[in-house]
Every structure is written in C-alpha cells, then in structure tokens.
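Cross-posted from the bioinformatics board.
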Amino acid sequence: MSLILVLIIIGVPWFGAALILLDRDRHDKLQHSLAVLFALAAAAAAILLTTHASKESVLVLAAGTVFGDFTFVPDGLGVFLTLIATIIGSLAVIFSINYMHGEKGLGRYYAYVLFFIGAMSGLVLTSNMLLMFFFWEITALCSYGLISFHNDDPKAVRGGLKALIITSVGGVGLLTGALLLYVYSSSFDYNILLADPSVIPSKILALLAFFFLVAAAAKSAQFPFQTWLPDAMEAPSPISALIHAATMVNAGVYLLARFFPAFEGVAYWKEAVMAVGVLSALLAAIMALFANDFKRVLAYSTVSQLGYMVYAVGAGSVLASQFHLFSHSIFKALLFLGAGAVIHSIGTRDMTKMGGVGKAMPFVKWVFIIGALALAGIPILNGFWSKEMILEAGHATGAPVLYWIMVFVAGLTALYTIRMVWMVFYGEPRSDYHAHKVGVAMKIALAPLAAAALTSWLVIGSFTKLLGEESLPYHAIESLSLSGMFHEVVSLPTLIPLAVILLGILCWIFREKLTGIGKLFGWLRWLADHSFGFEAINSGLVSAAQSSAEGLRVTQTGILGWNILGILSTIIVLFTLFAIGA
Amino acid sequence: MNTSLLIFGLIALPLVASPFVYLLGRSSVRKGTFLGMSFAKMLTVMVILLEGVLLLFTAREWIGLTSTYTTIGTTLIGFDGISLILGVIVLILGFCVTIFSFPYMEDEDGEEKFYALLLALIGSIVGLGMAQDLFNLWVWFEVMAISSYFLVAFYHDQPASLEAGFKYLTQSAVGSALALFGIALLFAKTGSVYIPDFGQTLQSNEPFVLIGGALIIIGFGVKAALAPLHTWLPDAHSQAPSGISAMLSGIVIEAGLVAMLRVISFMNGKDSNWGIILLVFGCINILIGNLLALRQTEVKRLLAYSSIAQVGYMLVGFGVSFYSQSITGAAGGYFHMLTHALMKGLAFLAAGSFLFVLHIAKGSHSPLVLDDLNGASKKYPLVALLFSIALLGLGGLPPMAGFMSKWQILLATAGEKSGGMIAVVVFVALNSILSLGYYAPIINRMYRHEQSETVAAGAKVTSWMVVPMVILTVCILLLGVWPTLASFMTNNAAATLLYPFGV
C-alpha cells in the first residue's frame, strides 16, 4: 500500500506535467483543472501515507554498484515534508487559477510546478544518496524555470540564473558528500551511516558533515549563500509561496535534520550550524527592517526564520526545528499568497506606494494579519509555540551569546512584521492605485492556511509520534503531548522573548518619538541596503569569470601558424616533463 | 554465423556502398531528375540500418566467444567491447544525422557527395573500433579524417567554411604525422604491430616508449581536441553543415580519443602515470572549454567550445581509471561518450533546425546568433523544448543522461580516497555549474514572448528534422532515469580497455 502511495505522490504530478505540456497552451481551463487535479491527487496520497509511515523501505530497484539501489522509505520525516509539499503545492496551484489568469505559457508554468512537487516528495522519501541528489537538482531546475518564468524581464532571468548557480554550488557539497559516503561505506543508503557513524573514518565524517552544511546553507539561503532568495522574488507569488518559503528552501534544513544523528559527534559541527543559523537570522532580520519591496521583506524573513530552524538543529533539537518548519511553511505560504493577492491587484511590489490597502481588500488584510502574528511569535498562533521551543532548546545548550542574539532577532522580527503590515494595509494610500477584491480561488487557497496558522500547533502529539522511534529509529525524538508542550513553553524563561517581542512592537508604535535613535543607525541602513557586502562578492565572482573568459580569447588567434605552434609546444612541454620526471 | 564474415561485412558494407550512393546521386544531378537522389538517400539509410543488424549479430557472437580476431592479409581486426560501443554510437548518430540531412541538404551544391562521404565516415569509425594492429588503427583514423575534411569544408563557396576546413586539414595532418612517428617508436620497442601481442613490453620507462607515448597522445589528441591542441575545433564544428557538426562533436573527436586510449592502455603499468597526464589534460580542457564558451554569441561556436569541455570530462574519467587501474572511471568515460553523443547530437540538430528555418531556407549563409533565438518557442515549440532538454542535459542536470554519466565519472574519481582527487571532484562539479552559465541563458531567450525579427520571418520546420531529434531525446531521458541500460556496453568497453592490467 505504501508503495502505491509513494508511486502516486511522485509519479502522478510528473505524469500531469507531461500531460499539461501536451496541450500546448491551447486550452487554459483544461490546464488549470488538470494541474489542480493532479496536485490534489498527490496531496490525498500524502495524507494517506501519514498513516503508513514506517522505517521499512517500500521500493527497492537494484541499479548496480555505481548507482546504488533505488530505495524509498516513507519514514516520519519524509512523510511530514511530503505532506507539506503536496498540500501547500495544491493550495498554490489553486491560487494560481486566479493569479495566472490570462498569462501566456501556462503549460510551462504548471509543468514546472507539478514536476517540482513530485521531485520534492522524491527528495525526502528516498534513502539513496544518488536519488536524493537527483531530486535535489531537479528542484533547482524547476526553481530556475519558475523564477525566470517571465523571460522578457532581465531581472527575472538574472534572478533565476543566480538561484540556479548558487544552489548548485551548494549541491556540489551534497554531491561530494554522497560520493564519499559510498566510497567509504560501500553503500548509497544513508541509514547505514545513521545507524553507526563510525563506519566512516572520523576525518572523512567531518568532511562529510561540513560539505553537507555547505549544501544545506546554499539550498536554504543561509549565510553566506543568502543572496539568491531575495532576487528569486521575481517569480510569480504562488511560486514564492511554494518553493521559496514552504518547500525547496526547507530541503537544506531537512538535510541537516536527517543527518543529525551521524554528525552530532563531529567536533565543532553543531557550533558551526548554530553560527550559520544565528548569522542568517540576524543579518536577514536587519535587511528586512530596511527593505521597501513587499516580497523582499518576506524573502528576508524566510531567510531569518530558516536561520531559527538551522539554529535549532545545531542546538540539538531536531523536533523544535521541524515543528517550526511546519508552522513556518503554513504562515509563510499564507503571507506570500496574501502578498501575491495584493501585488496582483495593485500592480506594484513597492510598499512606499501602498498604504490603506486593508480598506479595499479586507479579507486579505485579516488573513495576512493572522500570518503576521504567527511570524512575530504572538501567542496563541503556531509560530509562537514553535519559536519558543527553539529558544528553549537554544537556552539549554549553554551558548548564551547566541541565545540572546536569537531573542533579539525575535524582537526585530516583530518590528519588521508590524512595519510591513502597517505600510501596506493601514494608513492612507500613498499613491493612486486600484485595488479590487480577491477572486474565489485565492480565497479558497488563503482560508485553510489562516485556519492552520491558528491551530496547527494542536497536533503536536501526533507530530511527535510521526517523528518518533517507530519510523525514525536514529533520531531519538520523544513524544510530546499538548499538555507537555504547554508546560515546556508556558514557563518563566518564555517571558523574556515575549517581552522583547512586545518591545519590538512598541518600537514601531512609538516610532515618531524614536527617530533620533533611528538616525544613529543610518550606517546600518546603508549596510543592509548593500546586503552586508554579499552582493558585491557575487558580482565580483561573476565579473571575474567573465573577464577571465574574455582574456582567454586571445588564445584563439585564428592564425594557423599559432595553432600549430600550440601543438608543437605541447609536445616540447611533455618531453621536458618526462625528462625531468622519468 | 561465421564471425569473420560478419566482421568483414561490418567493415565492407558502408565503404562499398559509399561509391554506389555517390553514383546514384550523381546520375540524378546530371540527368536533372530527383529520383536518383532519393534512391541514394534511401540506400544510405538502409545501409546504416543493415550495419546495425550486422553489429547486433556480431555482438551476440562476441559474447559467446573469447576471441573474435580475424586477419585480412596481414591486418588484424577483431570485435571487442570498444568496437561495440563505438559502433552503437556512430550508427545511432549516423542514422539520425542522415534523416535530418534529407531536408537540410536538399538542393545543396554537391549533395550527392554528402551522403557518400557520410557513409565513408561511418564505415571508417566502425573500422577504427575494430582495428587490432597499430598501423591499421592509424589508417582507419586517416580515412575518417579525410572523409571529415571534405564534410567540414562542404560549403565550398563560403570563405569561412574553406578557412575552417583548411585549418582543420593542416592541424589534423600535423597530428597524424606525430601519431605515426609515435607508432613507429612503439613498433621499434615491441617488434610487432599486433596489439594483442604487446603484453607487458610497453610498460616501461625507456625513452623511446615515453616519447612514443607522448607523440601518440598529442597526435591523436589533436583530433580529440585536447587543449591546447583544440584551436581548429570552434571553426570546423561551427562551419560544417549541422548534421556533420553533430557527427564531429558526437563521435569523430571521441574516435580520436578511443584510438589514443587503445594504445596508451598498453603502456600503463605500476610505474607509469599516463593516467595523471590524461587527468591534467582533462581538467585543462574542462576549464578552457567552459570559459571560452561563456563569451560566445554564435550558437554553433558555443556548442563547439562546450564539446572541448565535455571531452575533458571523458579524459578525467579515463585518467582516473588508468591511475587507479579500476574500471569505473573508464566505464564512466565511455558512458559520457554515449550520453554526450546523444546530447550534443541533439543540440547541434536543434541548432541546425533553427539555422535552417531562420537562415538557410531564406538563402542566407549567416551564422545563427543568440539574438536570433529570442522568442523562438512560440513559433517552434517542439524544437525549442528539445533544444532545452539537450542544453540542460549538457549542463549535467537531471533527469537527463548527462547527470548519470558525470556521476559515474565523479564516483570513480572520489573512489581514489585521496585529498587531491576530492579536489578534482569539486573542481569538475563547479565547472559543470559554470557551464550552466552559458547553456541556461539560451533557454531563457527561446522562451521570451517577444520574438526576434528572424523568428517572425522564419520558415516552417519539417518532420524529417524533428523525428531524429525526438529519437535522441527519448534515448537521453531514458538513460537519465535508467542509467543501467547502457551498463552492458560501457562496462565491457572499460573491461576491454583495462585488459592489459588483468582487470
């Protein structure tokens, strides 16, 4: 039964992608309907799969020693992420019915989206490292295709290429690690490593751990690879919601969570992971504070919240990080879809031109506020519970500086969130825009996410059972009931982050009085606008490649004499090397 | 069936049919009818298909026997794993190119010579794969080279074409001369040209052997586009008719590589590090090929530079295999030969389709530039899709076959368990990503909504051009998700190559 479900989850969206392409953009409605149908089919299969989660592999295709056995294991971690990918995928596709109405190239759009959903599910459900890398690269391909969907816009094309190249560079870390795993353990199955990390010599294990950290950081847009995510906002908003908030960027966190039992013993690995998380969270929160592009604020916010998840893994609590992944997928998808509704209606992403949108679009305002409250970590929304669990875990590690920075970032989060909500939905319109009410499909996509943001924390019991020993034997995730979570979170140490969050909100409310302090931080604004120098590094690397390529062109002289000289001088060089060496 | 007869048939069929194809075609040109030309084209296709059948039978015979050697006069020929994979690649690619060329070369001046030369090229490569003595190897290599000279300079009234052909001829001749010197030196050491008789005699560090080996590498390496011997390639591959560009990039340069490897494999021993030399050349190829392609605006020239990089990947695979004396690297190298032939073949055929509908059908001889492709997907959706699949595959993205062949090569490299090799893995992988920097923007251009003027004025594309591209795409996607389909061929070719080690 699990086998059929896994095949449906991966195969049905892929089949749908091919089918939609065959229509060749002749029937809009057919393409919309098929996309929704196939996405929902995968989601239904994923929901059913949660009842069949186990640590036994369900599909084993022997493919020799070079490619390993193609295995799929529907364990708790995989099933949980598949659930998110398919359900939020379906909601994004439903939202697209309104958002992409009248767009040309729908076939390409839906084909990429469905191809992505299948690949993301495959990524988390497989236990073969080659297949994991295979699906990892396919998600990068789909992300590139969707970011640069509007090929006529050079910014979109640049954003797509940047995302592809940066995440692929990280992918080299995954590739090298996967190869080393096979070379030293004679197996592509990572469960061998998780069961007994000592099967690999410790130096190689350390190499593996840090290579995987690089791969995870690049995929999840963490320090120092965070620059691609803000530029990926050129993608249509349903894509930003699905790929760049709820699923693909979580692949990095998934990688760290999956391999935690193997790497936790590596010297300085956990500290490095925490450092990456904290730096990402802090820098991105500062950049979000000063950004004026609606989706860019959300992008920075995603980097920041992913930083929390990475920090949680480093602090030793895979449960807290996955729980926050769960909450974040819901409320960030909600925020992106809500922002998408606003942007689609108004026609600009510039928040300085918005203001008072809440009057024209009340439904969107209220669901967006729900998402914003979850992001800021206000009780009782899901973001509050998961963020507090992370901070608890961080507090327990005994790295106080990092903990206090994360508490401070929680306050910054509240500040930039309320700033964003205020600038868009409240106040007076700052420009002449026209905002109309949202379509039905958009409402159908937004409402369940808002409801989930209010209630998803209630399932903590089943959540911990799903990730428990039955299906994840090496992760030692203990069961936590609702009351257990209550006791853990509603305690004295939680009051401090709550106070800081309140402080952040108050800072905005009293911003008029604080302009003096604001001026003192002008240098910070400058740094944030220049992304703390990372964009400069990126453009430096690109121009270095281009100029070395240009410089190399002199070797192609076009003159036959030089070409033959090249042949003869190679001979001479080889002879000389032999004379010296032999 | 008698193996000798089959092998003889494999060699003789295309070469004997080639003049008939020419005569049939020539008769139609002289009489002003088209019937002769059509018969010539049909004969070409039938010969290729028949050759494929012969190859199948020969392969089945070979699986059962240990030795398939036979002599024609004093020449030793024999069928082995390398012959199989070379034969399969050249026949698949030759078939697709022939069909593609039916509309492409229609009414071209000298069309009757095209198919005859193409058959001779195919036949010579099949023969090269089966040559089991050094001199015969060189002779087949020369026949292949000569057929390709005329094909590269096919548009004999275009000065750029002639220049490309002339440079190719001269540099290739230098290479052939050097290779012959190398063969002479090795013959001086072994006393026999028969490859199976070499045994361990060449596994020494004597000066004659070292110089001979270096000359072999450089001599055959000119044809295989090792950097810095590659300077003829961008001109030749971009000026040739697109079907021939596909053949050149897909199999002709690889045939040079195969010839080189056959000889070098006997020289590799415990004390020799020919593998390191191949590895270094491979890394240089990858870097130079990628960097030079980055700045190209002409589509076929870009693809030609990328071929240099792709040969680099193969060299890395073979180099690692020789260094470690294990077959995974060589199997990966042969696998990459296969996947590269399919993907680069598809890319050149797709670029050729665009070149045909946008320029040639309008009577223009200007090259296809990147700006011409803007917005091409609306008018030519299938060709644009297939071209995108080829480009992404060349960049090493799944689910195309290039991903799997690169994986195998990198697996072999990592298998060395040394820090230097891990650095090579990272270097090769990063270069693969760099290549995306010039492959991906082409796809973005094609999927714009705003069409370039050339696209708006373009002609219709015919099914003769599309069908071979679809065939290649299906192979690429199939191998991309089911890489072990090719394992039989690649593992056997690698085993044959490393036979001197007793592997």
